[in-house]
Write a structure and sequence with these properties.
This protein is α+β, with helices and mostly antiparallel strands. It has 4 domains: 3-269, Immunoglobulin-like, CATH 2.60.40; 277-611, TIM Barrel; 616-683, Golgi alpha-mannosidase II (Immunoglobulin-like); 722-804, no CATH class. Helix content is 19%, strand content 30%. The strands form 12 sheets. It has an 8-stranded antiparallel beta sheet. Helix 4 packs parallel to helix 5 and helix 11 packs parallel to helix 12. The longest helix has 16 residues, at 406-421. The radius of gyration is 27 Å and the shape is globular.
Length: 805
């Protein structure tokens, strides 16, 4: 049953009424329509089949209002204390008057109670399934505008970017502004005495003014300014959207299936390009100088631990203080730590590693880079025209690059190119949240309007540097901050600096809601710091926490380790032999999943569907699929249920009706109706389930890296295995998949049950040994007339090992 139909059945009385035909609807392209009621003001949007998409709510006297207000901004350590002052009364729209109707557009006026012109409005649809609404306040002093929509009983709202507490945001008031997440988080949005350090519930590097509704539509507020979404919060029956500017630009993206709504949303936002293959192999951090980086690289190869990228944050220097290690802020190679950086890069390349480093836009006044930046006129300025200095995380007077100044832009790109010339293959592009709103920018624009755009500009700069290299080397950069416009620019987004603990909102559990929210917002290539990062208010990473984080990392789109701030105290892959083996096991599993992960990555690039996604996209009538913060789907067929509580060795998993199999081993689980099952989850294991009738392609065992290695090194690369695959098959349904390479698989096994003892390949009998068969070339495998597997694409010599699970 389609999601719109479900909501017409169980929704409120207003929704039930709106599902009926109405003679006063005005047509929009593609068979869509809008019902416009002049007084009281009311808008309702309908699909071609007559079902309701969404309708306005009278949150207050009317759905639309505007007012004048002023706000004070205080920035410290990248956190912002924002307080509204001198706010005037809201001016409500009392009546709507149609001005003009033509093909695809309706123009109207919104009048206040005295008949004065409050705002001009426009509804248009130039793309099927997408409806734009624009409200322009007519009083120049009005710099706040709101519009409200009905929130039906039981309706769920996903999205809003990297939110760390919630997946379903119903009941929340969500302020959206690019800033530091904070160290630890309050469960509310109040400013306390440590507001400049402690995060709040909705403080985030990656706020996104958009959501996906369980009614089968997505909504976007197109603004660079701060915004606030009250999601059935102050008014339990309404979603109130407030833009901190006089023009309110909204876009509705219809499904009616939730996944289709996400496709249309991400098509509008812009989708990222497919990253290099090595993004989906394990990455390992390695620091403390050339000798140690070499040691780690060789140890990985000696222990047959798959890894395609080593990233070295402290290439430009680092400082140890007790167990803590912090990066230096000069933009030059630290020749004391890395005297032979270029030779190290070449050696890592020979061992089959991409070599990643680190950048940000901070200009520490105590560095040589700062003096170069002054000569290039690169820093942001204060109102007196002097370099704007604030206190950095290292407690030094620091500025940042003015990305609106062309000379600063070019100088920064030249500095980053120096790393490429020395052998780097990309970097962490860190921070970009700190732009003060009282800076004087070269562009002359309001820095409050430029603030949320700063990370987008920073990402555009990084993208230009990599694209302009022109040497054929596959590279990437990864970021933690973003805003609207970042989607098509970034390679990978990571979750930021989690605490090294189990706390909700900022520890291990926070990673899942962030990944789901970012995926809905158009950031499919997501990872996180395995083990966490910040330990100043948390103990160092423990063995148990690290084991659980490795498991989650293996079933994330990007698997990447981090040493953490307490680098000399945190548990890691070298802390004992069992930890090395635990990491090796899950690194192998993540690497072997590459054919599947890369297919899902291509789907994300082409269709905009997230790799890490809520179950609701596949099972929209499953209630926990909209709300669960501790389980997700990796791609379209793996249901992942990490353990995110200390001491737990079992956990409940919410599932739709059907039959599911544990990925690695275990008996089938059959539910006649949706419900929860409790699964064993010892420390070394993560519950992962796969639906009956599924196929899963994997790489053969033994692949070390996804990038080229030196000839004769003995290192097994992705190119070495070519088209060879292992395919796991489960009985009881149908499944198909096409790899990025063109290799394709189709499995029909509705009638298959029990042990497989005999099969034919292209009409000839093949041996089934220990539940597996070895196949050569494309063709069809017939399993005793009860199931068929078709392999297409590739050469006549492709090797496929088929395993019946």
């Amino acid at each position: 049953m389609r999601i719109w139909a479900w909501w017409c059945v169980v929704g409120s009385a207003s929704v039930l009424f709106a599902c009926a035909e109405s003679s006063d609807r005005r047509p929009l392209p593609g068979g869509y329509s809008v019902r416009v009621e002049e007084r009281p003001v009311h808008l309702a949007f309908f699909r071609p089949d007559g079902s309701l998409i969404v309708e306005s709510a009278a949150s207050g006297p009317a759905p639309y209002s505007a007012r004048a207000a002023f706000a004070s901004y205080e920035m410290s350590f990248g956190a912002f204390r924002i307080r509204e002052t001198d706010a005037g009364p809201w001016q409500w729209a009392d009546r709507l008057a149609i001005r003009k109707t033509d093909a695809g557009a309706i123009e109207f006026d919104l009048l206040d109670g005295s008949g004065g012109l409050l705002a001009r409005g426009r509804i248009e649809s130039d793309t099927p399934g997408e409806i734009a609404l624009v409200f322009e306040a007519q009083d120049p002093a009005h710099n706040r505008a709101t519009f409200s929509w009905v929130a039906a009983p039981g309706e769920h709202f996903l999205g809003f970017g990297g939110q760390s507490f919630d997946v379903d945001h119903r009941g929340q008031r969500i302020p959206l502004w690019v800033e530091e997440d904070g160290i630890g988080k309050r469960a509310d949005d109040e400013y306390d005495d440590t507001w400049f350090v402690t995060g709040r519930r909705h403080s985030t590097h990656t706020p996104m003014p958009l959501y996906l509704s369980s009614r089968g539509y997505a909504l976007l507020l197109d603004t660079l300014q701060r915004s606030i979404f009250e999601v059935a919060a102050a008014d339990p029956d309404a979603v109130r959207i407030e833009a901190w500017e006089g023009t309110l630009r909204l876009r509705i993206f219809d499904g009616p299936e939730p996944a289709r709504a996400v496709e249309r949303l991400t098509d509008h936002l812009g989708r990222p390009r497919l990253p290099p293959a090595f993004a989906f192999a394990p990455w390992l951090d390695a620091m403390f100088g050339s000798q140690n980086v070499r040691r780690i690289a060789h140890k990985l190869r000696e222990h047959d631990i798959p890894c395609a990228a080593i990233w070295t944050e402290d290439w430009r220097g680092g400082t140890r203080s007790g167990d803590n290690y912090t990066l230096d802020e000069d933009w030059e190679i630290d020749r004391a730590l890395y005297p032979d950086f270029e030779a190290l890069a070449a050696e890592l390349h020979g061992l089959g590693f991409a070599f990643l480093t680190y950048h940000n836009t901070f200009l520490d006044s105590e560095t040589d880079t700062y003096r170069q930046a002054l000569a290039a006129d690169a820093p942001i300025r204060n109102s007196a025209g002097q370099p704007y200095l604030f206190t950095s995380a290292k407690f030094t007077p620091t500025s940042m690059v003015d990305l609106t100044r062309s000379a600063a832009w070019l100088w920064t790109k030249d500095k980053y190119r120096e790393g490429l010339a020395a052998g780097a293959d990309g970097w962490m592009a860190d921070f970009a949240e700190w732009l003060p709103v009282d800076a004087a920018l070269a562009s002359g624009e309001d820095p409050a309007a430029a603030h949320n755009r700063y990370p987008v500009d920073f990402q555009r700069l990084n993208r230009e540097v990599l694209d302009e290299a022109g040497d054929g080397v596959e590279r990437l950069f990864f970021v933690r901050s973003a805003y609207l416009g970042s989607q098509p620019l970034v390679s990978v987004v990571w979750a930021g600096d989690q605490l090294t603990d189990w706390s909700a909102g900022d520890g291990l559990p926070s990673v899942i809601p962030m990944g789901i929210g970012l995926g809905i917002a158009g950031f499919p290539y997501f990872g996180h710091d395995i083990g966490g990062y910040t330990g100043s208010i948390a103990p160092p990473t423990t063995r148990e926490l690290w084991f659980r984080w490795v498991e989650l990392g293996a079933f994330s789109p990007v698997m990447r380790t981090h040493h953490g701030r307490a680098a000399f105290a945190n548990w890691n892959w070298e802390s004992d032999d069992a930890s090395t083996e635990h990491f090796r096991r899950y690194a192998i599993l993540h690497a072997r999943l590459f054919p599947y992960l890369y297919a899902m990555a291509r789907e994300a690039s082409e269709r905009g569907l997230p790799m890490l996604r809520p179950l609701a996209l596949a099972y929209p009538v499953l209630e926990p699929g909209w709300t669960a913060t501790d389980q997700f789907m990796l791609g379209d067929r793996l249901i992942v249920a990490p353990v995110v509580e200390p001491g737990a060795t079992r956990r409940a998993v919410a599932l739709p009706a059907g039959t599911f199999y544990p990925l690695l081993a275990g008996e089938a689980i059959t539910l006649p109706e949706a419900g929860a099952v409790e699964l064993a989850a010892p420390l070394e294991e993560i519950p992962v389930l796969i639906p009956a009738g599924t196929l899963l392609p994997l790489l053969p065992e033994g692949v070390d890296t996804f990038v080229p290695a030196a000839t004769g090194s003995g290192i097994v690369t992705l190119d070495d295995v070519g088209e060879d695959r292992e395919v796991w098959l489960w009985p009881g349904g149908r499944s198909e998949l096409r790899e990025v390479s063109g290799l394709a698989y189709s499995w029909a096994a509705e009638a298959l049950a029990g042990h497989v003892a005999a099969a034919t390949w292209n009409g000839a009998p093949v041996n089934v040994v220990d539940g597996a068969v070895e196949l050569t070339g494309p063709g069809t495998l017939d399993v005793a007339g009860r199931a068929t597997l078709t392999l297409s694409g590739g050469s006549a010599g492709r090797k496929t090992r088929v395993v019946f699970r």
